[in-house]
Amino acid sequence: MGYALPMRNYDIIIVGAGHGGAQAAIYLRQWGFTGSIALIGDEPELPYERPPLSKDYLAGDKSFERILIRPAAFWQERAITLLPSTRIAALDPAAKTMTSADGQAFTYGTMIWATGGTPKRLGCPGEGLAGVHVVRNRTEVDAMTAELPSVRNVVVIGGGYIGLEAAAVLRKFGKAVTLVEAQNRVLSRVAGEPISRFYEAEHRAQGVDIRLNSGVAAIEGENWVTGVRLSDGILLPAEIVIVGIGIDAATAPLQAAGLASANGVDVDAFCRTSDPFIYAIGDCAAHENAFAGGQRLRVESVQNAHDQASCAVKAILGQPEPYRAMPWFWSNQYDLKLQTVGLSVGYDETVLRGDPDSRSFSLIYLRQGRVVALDCVNATRDYVQGRKLVEAGATIDPDRLADTSMPLKEML
Q1: Measured between alpha carbons, how far is residue 241 from residues 118, 155, 220, 388 in Å?
Q2: Dihedral sign of CA atoms 182, 377, 292, 111 in order
Q3: What is the enclosing helix (H) or strand (E) of 65?
Q4: d(CA 189, CA 196)
Q5: In which element (H, E) is residue 395 found?
Q6: CA dist., res. 67 & res. 48, Å (int)
Q7: Which helix (H) or strand (E) holds 308?
Q8: Alpha-carbon separation of residue 30 from 23, 26, 69, 70, 309 (angstroms)
Q9: Phi and psi at residue 34, in whole multiples of 5°?
Q10: Helix (H, G, I), strand (E, B) or coil at 349
């Protein structure tokens, strides 16, 4: 005979124990909240940093302990209840209750939804074979790392930051790497063509075989992957396949409960959803962003997760401040440090500042004559100084922007 697990009650429940969720719990205690807090995560580990998974952690340069957001004692000392290996499957906003996939039941006063995203799938035959991985959590990366010693050929599917970062690490390990990208250039969703062509050239110089305009028809093998069949019939040998083609917002329970959502769950300027007792932050939250001309979108970055955590907690504590944080991103590949500030959404002009052949340059994005973003490759000074131009929405003659003899800070 079955029986129901007892209901667990918390003043604030945070669903999702990544950067946004963990930071929200930290801010609540830091800013004086004394009620009960539960931090629910679907992984077994303590909250940890996700970006190093495709960089320092995969490369073996950082241990798992070094990418923990806080040690175990931190959460205990602040009476933040961690509930790992728990996936919320359904919620009833009217009753302020939720249930997990394993039957646990919870009630909340206020909820913060911070679940991030789930990796997009290829939707082709063979994607469930052993040896096919995504770079989204520690378990996946640990499994991949354990397999690598016996691997010669790796196929990386997806030419975004995750795919390129993984390719760079795998070349460091001496693996034969082929990168497959469906579009006509890498980074097509996030960067202008000069950045794409620069990174393609760099990866090819490091020995990566880049296949552009290439679709995947199937992943082949019996029990373990042996190759990737492209749409044109070419078979690429592989003992490991890494799929990095983006994420879908992890918001199914919110959608099923009737909250307003399209590409992610919709939030207002204070990170509130259409239910006043449910907030959403991070990769899963679609908000109107001033740096994208007011367009509603999701921003997938640590910066956004942290700053939206701050915004939501301030609103919950009765000190609301609308979200206006400056977007920024970074990517490390080989000896190249790419730093991005602003959002290049809807840009209509770019200005190349510096010489890509020097491996230190910037690409400046303009929208209707105003500076909206910069991609800076090994050009930290431009990144730091360009931030002011983006904040001001500065209108500057493109020839001046391109003049590397003049610091950007002198152009305002």
Answers
A1: 18, 5, 11, 41
A2: positive
A3: none
A4: 10
A5: none
A6: 6
A7: helix 302-316
A8: 10, 6, 15, 14, 12
A9: -110, 0
A10: strand
Q: What angle, 0 to 180 degrees and rounded to 10, lies between the N-to-C axes of helices 193-205 and 161-172? A: 20
Whether the predicted model's global pTM rises above the 0.70 cut: yes
The pLDDT tens digits for 140-192 are 999 999 999 999 999 999 999 999 999 999 999 999 999 999 999 999 999 99
Q: What is the DSSP string of 170-200?
A: HHHTT-EEEEE-SSSSTTTTTS-HHHHHHHH
Q: What is the pLDDT of residues 244-279, one digit of tens each?
A: 999 999 999 999 999 999 999 999 999 999 999 999
Going by pLDDT thresholds of 50, 70 and 90, the confidence category of residue 2 is: very low
Strand partners for 329 = 340
- Could you report the per-residue pLDDT of 16-39, keeping only the tens digit for each? 999 999 999 999 999 999 999 999
Number of Cβ within 10 Å of residue 389's Cβ equals 25
Q: Residue 69's closest CA among 106, 13, 113, 27?
A: 27
> 230 and 251 in contact (C-beta within 8 Å)?
no
Place of tokens 């904040």: 391
Residue written as tokens 């990517």?
331
Give CA–CA dist 285/303, Å, rounded.
13
